[in-house]
Amino acid sequence: MTTTAGTMRKLTYREAVREAIREAMHKDERVFLMGEDVGRYGGCFAVSKGLLEEFGPERIRDTPLAESGFTGAGIGAALGGMRPIVEIMTGNFSLLAADQIINTAAVLLHMSGGQFNVPVVIRLATGGGRQVAAQHSRSLEGWFAHIPGIKVLAPATVNDARGMLWTALEDPDPVLIFENSNLYNMEGPLAVEAGAVDIDRARVRRDGRDITIISYGASLFKALEAAEILAKDGIEVEVVDLRTLRPLDEATFLASVARTHRALVVDEGWRSGSLAAEISARIMEGAFYDLDAPVARLCTAEVPLPYAKHLEEAALPQVAGIVALVKKMVGGHG
Amino acid sequence: MTPRKSAKTTAAPVEREHGLHLLRSMVRIRRFEDKCAELYTATKIRGFLHLYDGEEAVAVGVLEALTADDAVVATYREHGHALVRGVAAGAILAEMYGRQEGCSRGRGGSMHLFDARTRFYGGNAIVGGGLPLAVGLALADTMQQKRRVTCCFFGDGAVAEGEFHESLNLAALWRLPVLFVCENNLYAMGTALRYAQAATDLAARAASYGMAAAAVDGMDVLAVEAAAHQAAAAIRAGEGPQFLECRTYRFRAHSMYDAELYRTRAEVEQWKQRCPIASFTERLRGAGLVSDGDLEAIEAEVAREINEAVAFAEAGSLEPVEDLTRFVYSERRLP
Amino acid sequence: MADFCMPSLGADMQEGTLVEWLVKAGDEVKRRDVIAVVETDKAAIEIEVYEDGVVEELVVEPGQKVPVGTVLAVIRSEGEAAASPQQRREPAAGTGGAPVPAESAAIKVAAAPAKPEPAVSVPSAPGPAAARIKASPYARRLAAERGLDLSQLPGTGPGGVIRAADVAGGVAPQVLRPGTEQAAPVVAEPAPVPPAAAAPPAKDFQAGMRRAIAAAMARSNREIPHYYLGLRIDLSRTLRRLEAENLKRPIRERILPVVPLIKAVALALGEAPELNGYWVDDRFQPQEAINIGFAIALRQGGLITPALLNADLQSLDELMAALRDLITRARSGGLRSSELTEATVTVTSLGDLGVETVYGVIYPPQVALVGFGRIMEQPWAENGMLAVRPVLTATLAADHRATDGHRGAQFLDALNRYLQEPEKL
Questions:
Q1: Chains that touch A (3 or more CB pairs under 8 A)
Q2: For A282-289, what is the mean pLDDT?
Q3: In this complex, do A76 and B137 lie within 8 Å of one another by their Cβ atoms?
Q4: What domains, with CATH codes, occur in chain A?
C-alpha cells in the first residue's frame, strides 16, 4: 500500500479501534461502552484510554468482574433500544459469558419468531503469542463462528479495525469482534477519510496464481510475510483475509482456489473441529474439481499454549512453517 | 409457614370488582394449564411442558403492579405470566401446537413465549439467564430516561446461579429499575432448596447486595399484590431495584415426565390446602363479595376463552419448511 | 462338494475356536442341522449347516482357533460320489498353529445357495488390486476435458501424484534432471519424500511425456476437423522498427523477432475471438483472456507450451521478459501448472530450424494454432516495384467445428495488418 501524503496517515490498530468507538459515540447517542476496566483504567489494552474523560462514566461504564452479568446486561440494553459495545477483556473470559452470548443473544430473534433482535456489539481480545500461558492465549473465535444467530468478525488491518465497528453497530443482530491482541501496537496506513467498511466480504490481500492462503487476524500478516518470501522463489501466493468468520464469504475464497488450484488455511485455532476444518470442507464441497493438491491447514499445535517462549512459538503457526508447507504443496517431489 | 385461616371476616379485603378480576385471572391460568396437560397427553403439545398450578397468585399479584409500558422477563414456566400480561390464549396455545399463528411463530414452544406488543421478553429456559437481560433492559430505560419498570421472574433454583448474583449486584450498583421476583416453590426441579442452599432465606441474601428485599406469602394474591405495588412504587420513585421473594408451591410435577420421587404426596396435599384460588374464593365469599353465580360466570367465561384458544390453535397453520432458516438473522435494518 | 466354513457372526468377529463337532465323517446332515459349536469373543455359538449331504471330512479339529472363512468341514452333496483320498484336503494340523485356510476355500462361499445364504463373509485375499491412479481432482478434470488417459501420464507430484502440470504435458523439471545437485527454483527445499520414492529415471518421464503428447495429438487428429490457411507476410516494417527499438536497449534486453509476432497474433485474435478458446462439451467456449501457449522444445526431447498470459495487454518488453522467463524455466525448472493449462491458443515458431511453413496440429481443447516459418529474404512485388523483403509464412490451423475458413482468413488478414503497423504493437 502506498502512502500518499495528505490523504493517508499512520496510526496503530489500538488507535483505530479507539477512533471507531469515539466516532460511534459521537454519531449515535445510544452507543455506550461497557466492560471491565474500560473507564478509569483506560482499558486493559488501553483501547479506551481517554474516553471516560470525553464521554463520562454513564457511557464509558466500568463493570464488576461479572462477564455473564454485564454481557447479558448489554444484550438486554440492546433489546431496550440502546447500542451497547460490550468489551470482554479477553476472549478467554467469554467462556464466562458464553451462556448469554450463545443461549440468549444468538437465539432471541429466532425463539421469538422474529420479534426481538439484539443489536449488541461484543469486542474481545483474542490470540496467543504474548507468553501469557494457557488461560489467556486462546483463540475461540472459531467456536463462536459455529453458532447461528451471531456474526463473528476478525479485523486484521487498521482499516478494518477502524471501519468494522460502525457497521457492526448498525447491524440488527449480535456481532462479536475478535481483536487479536498482538495487533494493537501494529501501525498501518489509513486514509484520512476512512470510515465504515462492510462486514460480510472476505478480501484478497495479495494476488497470486500458485496457491491461496486463507487466513484472518494476526495470522494474515504471517501469511503475507510468507508470500513475500515465497515470491523470491517464484511462487506467487494469493492471500485471502476472511475478515468475517460468520457468515463465511465462501464465494471469495472458492473463486481464489479456482484460480490457484491449491489452498492452505492458516488459523490460530486448534485444528480439530476448527474454523480451518470448516473452510477446508467448503473448498472440498465447492472447488473439488479445481484442486490440484489436497487442502492443507496450519493451525496451532494441539496443546494449551505454554508459557516458555520457544514452546509457544513452536505451537503457533509461524512464517517459516507457512513457507515450508507451501513449498511442499507447490513443488514436486525432491 | 402456617396456612392462613380463611377467616369469616366481614371486613372486605378488596373491592368486589377487583376481587373478581384477580380471581378470574387465577382461574384462567389454572384452567389453561389443565387444558395444556390434557392436550399434552393427547400429543397435541410436545417438548417440555412446565405447568404453573399452585403458583397463580404470584403472577397475578405481581403483574397487577405493572403498567403497559413496563417489561416482563419470565422463565420456562411462563404460560400464566403471558396470559395475565395480555398475550392471547389462542396465540399461546398455537405456539405450543407449533403453529405459525403462535406468539413465537412456533419457533419457541411452551418454554419460549414472546410478545413484543406487551413487552413480554420470554420465555427464558436457561435458569438464571433472564436476570442479566432484565438488568440490561432496565439499564436501557435508565440511560434513555424512560421511567419504566422491568419485572423479572425466576425460581429459587436461579439463586444458585452466578448470573443471579452478578445481576443483583449490577442492578443495585447502578440503581436500576428492576423488580426481581423470586418464585420460591421450594424445589429446583427435584432438589429441595435445603439441599441446594446453605442459607435458605433468599430475601436476606438479596438484601446483602444492597437492595430492598421482602418475602411474601405467594399463595395469597392480595399479599403478593400489595407487596408488588409497594416495590414497584419504590422503583418508580427512583429507589433502585427491589426484590420480592414469593413463597409458593407447584401442585403438579416439574414437567410432564416427572415421577415426583423427591417429595411426598402428603406434602403436596398439605400445600394444596392452601390453594391460592380456593383460599381467595373463600375470603371473597366470606366477605360476601362473590356469589355462586359469579363463580359460575367466571368458569363459563374462562371455559369459553379456552375453547376458543383450542379452536384457534387447531386451526393454525404450519410455517412452510422453506422458511426454516428465517429469524436467524434479521430481515430488516434498524432505524 | 461344499465347504463348511468358520462363519462370520458379526462385523467384529475375526476368528473363532472350534469347540466341538456334533457330527463325524460319514454322517448324513440336513440343512439347518447344528453340526458344530464355535467359541467366539462373545460366547459359544452353535453353527448350522446349510447343505443337505454327507460329511465327507472334518478338516479342523476341536480346540483349533481359525480365521473366519476357514474350511471346517467338507460336505458331499447327495448323489455326489465320494472323493478319493487324494482329492481330500489335507488337514492343516501339524504345525501346531492355526491352520491356514486353503486358498480356494478362502474365496469360495458355501456351495449350492439354493436359498438365501447366511451372512458368511469370507475374507478375500488382498490380491494385487489394480493400482488406483493417484491424480488431483483438477488434473482428472483437465485430462477428461482433453481426452487423455491418466495411466499414460507421468505423475510428478508428491508420491507420484498426477497434477495439472503433468496433464498439460509439462513435466516438473527437477524430475527431468535426475542427479542434479542444484534444486530447481520452485523447490528451494527438498520435499520430504524418501529416496526410494523419489525421481524415477528420466527416460520414464520422457516416455511419459511422449505418451502424453501422443495421446493429445492422436485425439486432436481424430476429433478435430482441421483446416489450414497460409499467408506470406512482409516483415520489413516490423523488423525495421524492432531494430530501431533494440538500439535503445542493452543487449540483454533486446526483443527477439518472435515477440512482435506473438503480440500481433494476440491483437488479431482480439478481432477474431472465435479462434481464442476451447471446444468443450460439443460447443465452443470463448475465453476472455488471450493466453498464448508458446511451444518450447525441451533439450531432453518433447515439447511444452506454457502460456504467455494476457499477451494482448502486454508491451513488447513485458512479453519479451515473460518469454525469456518461460523459456528459462521450461528448460531449467519451475513451470507452474497454471502456465501449462491456461493457454487459449498456441503459437509454434519453427523458423530457427529452417522450416518454411508450419502445418500445426491443434492442442485440444484449443481451436487454433498459428505457425510461423523462417524469415527469408524473398523477391516481393509491391506497387509495381520488385524488391527484396524479409518474408515469412504464417499459417493458421483451425478447428472447423468452431470456425470457417472465412473467419480464419480474416484473422490472418488482421495479423498481417498489425505487422504492417508495428507501432501499434
A1: B, C
A2: 96
A3: yes
A4: 8-191 (3.40.50.970), 203-330 (3.40.50.920)
Range B16-314: architecture per CATH: 3-Layer(aba) Sandwich (3.40)
The predicted structure's pLDDT at residue C334: 63
* Spatial separation of the C-alpha atoms in residues A266 and A14, rounded to whole Å: 24
User: Cβ of C164 and A260 within 8 Å?
Assistant: no
Report the 10 Å Cβ neighbour count for C380: 15
User: What are the extents of the domains in chain B?
Assistant: 16-314
C163 has a chain A CB within 8 A of its CB: yes
Cis peptide before A81 (omega within 30 of 0): no
Q: In chain A, what residues touch B112 (CB-CB under 8 Å)? A: 111-112
Query: What phi and psi, each to the nearest 5 degrees, are found at residue A61?
Result: -105, 110
* DSSP states along B22-48: HHHHHHHHHHHHHHHHHHHHTTSS-S-
- Per the CB < 8 Å rule, is A64 touching B169? yes
Rounded to a whole number, what is the distance in Å from the CA of A210 to chain C's nearest CA? 7
- Interface predicted TM-score (ipTM) of this complex, two decimals: 0.91
Q: Which residues pair with C5 in a beta bridge?
A: C71
pLDDT in tens, B302-327: 999 999 999 999 999 999 999 999 99
CB neighbourhood size of B271 (10 A):
20
Alpha-carbon separation of residue A35 from A26, A90, A94, C114 (angstroms): 19, 11, 12, 78
CATH code of C2-106, in short, is 2.40.50.100
CATH number at C224-424: 3.30.559.10
Residues 6+ apart with CB under 8 A from A74: A34, A84, A86, A120, A122, B136
- Burial (CB count <10 Å: 0-12, 13-18, 19+), residue B112: buried
**If you count them, how many residues does chain C have?**
425
Q: Coil, helix or strand for A151?
A: strand
| H or E element at residue B226 | helix B221-236
pLDDT in tens, C363-408: 888 999 999 999 988 888 888 888 899 999 999 999 999 999 999 9
Tell me if A169 sits within 8 A of A121, measured CB to CB. Answer: yes
Spatial strand order of the sheet with B242-247 comes to: B120-123, B71-74, B150-155, B178-184, B242-247, B212-217
Which residues belong to CATH 2.40.50.100 in chain C? 2-106
